[in-house]
Amino acid sequence: MIPRPMQSGAKNGACNPKVVVVFPPYTPHPTPYTPPQRGLVICKHGQTKPGLVTVTLERDECIVVIKKVPAEVCDNCGEYYLNNSITEQVLQRADVAVNNGAEVEIIRYAA
Ligand SMILES: [Zn+2]
Question: Could you give the domains of the chain?
Answer without folding.
Answer: 11-34+41-108 (3.10.20.860)
